[in-house]
Specification:
There is one protein chain. The two termini are about 30 Å apart. The strands form three sheets. This protein has a six-stranded parallel sheet, with helices on both faces. The protein has a six-stranded parallel sheet with strand order 11-10-9-12-13-14, with helices on both faces. Strands 4-5 form a two-stranded antiparallel sheet. Helix 3 (about 80-90) packs across helix 4 (about 105-115). With about 325 residues, it is an alpha/beta fold. The chain has helices at about 10-25, 70-75, 80-90, 105-115, 135-145, 190-200, 225-235, 245-255, 265-280, 290-300, 310-320, 325-335; strands at about 1-10, 30-40, 55, 65, 70, 95-100, 115-120, 150-155, 180-185, 205, 220, 240, 260, 285. The protein has two domains: about 1-170 and about 310-335, Rossmann fold, CATH 3.40.50; about 180-300, Rossmann fold (3-Layer(aba) Sandwich), CATH 3.40.50.
């Protein structure tokens, strides 16, 4: 079976999930995968060896400024003509199935030519009435048309009574109890953030910030690196991050306390924060500063550890078997 697999490259979580799927596909050589990435300039993609000779398209992305979605800047950087050309010229009829991890070019190309399509990812969980802001009807509508598919496998930290799959998240190495706190807040305003961290008597390792910034001695800035990042998460005493899906899922496999702030104006992250609070999996705050971090640490935050099944292998096996099983049955088996 020939599969075109599109991945939204804006966030590292989508690519992390794709790497896990690429590893699972190795066990099923009858599945021939052509990868496509969009939403991030190709020169900013790193460690892409798992995807072979992947394709790239410009796609769509959102602009973040100082911890919020900048709607005006997002609208300004859109290139609808280029997007339409990419959709119109993508050779989807050469494939038996198109998979989209919330990637719009592959999803819309499949829809336009009536090629079978499957969505895999967290965003497709919002097809069901799961925790989300009441004002999110417009955002839900945008999510439904962003990367539409015929069938979907949505993922979340809990099923909420619907046929939603667990996350594709496995622990990276053995959890250790180090002294540093891992900080991954790439969407925050950088200078105020490091200023707040400098006020605290704790060691921080921060990713997602410019590494040429002048910072206090208790802060170590690191450039993106998969293995080193995973090791620093595994050995951290706690994790501070925005409310993205994949990193929190991976942190839960390690049983680390989590302090999280949703990216303001980003429907998915605000919904994630609601779910985390309801499930008592993390501490959710409206701002990240010295006061909230200090109060969180002094409260001796509870660490929750969750052991997810091998979702990637189950999906790959399901695909190799021709998707004959209903998705509800697949979800029940994985949650058991």
């Amino acid at each position: 079976m020939k599969i075109l697999y599109g991945v939204q490259g804006t966030g590292n979580g989508h690519i992390s999930r794709a790497r896990a799927m690429a590893g699972a596909f190795k066990n099923h050589p009858q599945l021939e995968i052509q990868w496509l990435f969009s939403g991030r300039p190709p020169e900013k993609l790193f460690r892409m060896e798992a995807f072979g000779d992947f394709w790239w398209r410009e796609g769509l992305t959102f602009v973040n400024r100082k911890g919020r979605i900048d709607q005006l800047a997002t609208a300004r950087q859109l290139r609808p003509r280029q997007l339409w050309r990419d959709i119109a010229t993508l050779p989807v009829r050469e494939f038996d199935l198109v998979i989209s991890d919330f990637e719009p070019v592959t999803a819309w190309a499949a829809k336009r030519r009536d090629v079978p399509s499957l969505g895999i990812g967290h965003q497709y969980a919002f097809n069901f009435p799961i925790p989300a802001p009441r004002f999110g009807w417009a955002a839900r509508s945008i999510m439904r048309v962003f990367a539409p598919v015929q069938q979907s496998l949505g993922m979340h930290w809990h099923h909420f009574g619907h046929p939603i799959l667990p996350p594709i998240a496995r622990p990276h190495g053995q959890a250790e109890s180090g002294e540093h706190i891992l900080v991954y807040l790439p969407f925050e305003h950088h200078e105020p953030l490091v200023g707040e961290l400098a006020k605290l008597p704790h060691q921080f390792i921060a990713y997602g910030l410019p590494t040429d910034m002048q910072v206090a001695g208790n802060i170590q800035l690191k450039a993106p690196a998969i293995e080193e990042f995973q090791q620093d998460v595994a050995s951290a005493r706690a994790v501070i991050c925005n409310s993205g899906f994949e990193l929190i899922a991976e942190t839960l496999t390690l049983g680390k306390p989590i302090l999280t702030r949703p990216l303001a104006g980003q429907f998915e992250q605000e919904a994630n924060a609601m779910a985390l609070a309801r499930l008592q999996l993390a501490t959710v705050v409206n701002r990240i500063d010295a006061t909230t971090i200090r109060a969180w640490l002094e409260s001796n935050p509870t660490a929750v550890q969750v052991r997810w099944p091998d979702v990637a292998e189950s999906i790959a096996r399901w695909l190799a078997d021709g998707r004959r099983r209903e998705t509800a049955g697949l979800a029940r088996e994985l949650w058991q």
